[in-house]
Amino acid sequence: MKKIILLTFLFFTLLYGTDPIRIVYNTDTPPLKFTDIENKPNGMLIDIWKLWASKNNLSIEFIEASWDESLQMIQDESADIHAGLYYTKEREKFLDYTTKPLYNNRNYFFYDTTFLNVEKIDDLKPFVVGISNGYPNEFMEKNYPDFKVQTYKSSDAASKAFLKGEVKVVLSAMPTLSYFLQLNKFNIENYKYNDISYAFTKHYYGAVKQGNKKLLKRIDEGFTKLSDQELKQIEKKWTSELSNYYLQKEYAQPILNEKQKKYLQEKKV
Q1: Pairing of strands 81-86, 198-209
Q2: Residue 91 gets which letter from DSSP?
Q3: Strand 41-42 to strand 34-35: parallel, antiparallel, or no bridges (unpaired)?
Q4: Radius of gyration, CA atoms only, the chain
Q5: Chain-centre distance of CA 82, in angstroms?
Q6: Other CB atoms within 10 Å distance of the CB of residue 75
């Protein structure tokens, strides 16, 4: 029996190696993936990969990068897995995607209910819609070509513009805007979305370098061990329960101010 266990261990060691699997993530999409104030990878997709590694007894290493760098690192094999991105035909030329989406990212037109009530989508037409660069541009041009839009470099920038009142409507993923509302302590009840203001759903997939079928198979088989309930709990943690988990930790008031800390450090008795 011991020989069988040893041979099995040696087989998997030779097949997969012992080095940690390197997962690259871009940092500009909180609460899905970002680097927190403790300089650690954090977010919904990060938690999903941690659960995947735990369920499969794997060692992983997260690597922070810009968006362009994250794609390049997969291509030049300085990273093994991309933590999460949308499928596009252009990226399919150099990436292979996981079979199952990591997360279904629903996007809505959000609006300020203090002055606007949306009963039909055309109620948004008089207002400039803030959008992030990339697919939202394509979506608006195809589906709402007569709407006025203001394009920002990222979803973060579009959310900030909306909260500052620079635009009265923003096209955003639900987790992204919910995060920014809670982060900045805005009354979430004043900023609404509904079935009428639903825009589109984009799926986040993990990805590997095109042709790396062995690793892709390993990822897909590993995800079968994750239950829907476990994944829903992670989503809940980063959306409806965000303020209970992350924001209180980040913005908790210190018991002592800096002057008091200095006094205690210098006080010998």
Answers
A1: antiparallel
A2: G
A3: antiparallel
A4: 22
A5: 12
A6: 12
Report residue 29's pLDDT band, with 50, 70 and 90 as the boundaries.
confident
Q: Which of 187, 191, 190 is nearest to 172 (CA)?
A: 191
**Helix, strand, coil fractions of the chain, as percent rounded to 5:** 45, 25, 35
The tokens describing 61, both together, are 């290493």
126-149 per-position pLDDT tens digit: 999 999 988 899 999 999 999 999
Let me know: does 198 contact 192? Beta carbons within 8 Å.
no
pLDDT tens digit sequence for 231-246: 999 999 998 888 777 6
Block residue for tokens 């203090």: 114
3-state secondary structure of 247: helix
Read off the pLDDT band of 268 (50, 70, 90).
Answer: very low
Q: Check pLDDT > 90 for residue 164.
A: no
pTM attached to this predicted model: 0.78
Are 153 and 133 contacting, i.e. CB atoms less than 8 angstroms apart? yes
* CB-CB neighbours of 13 under 10 Å: 10
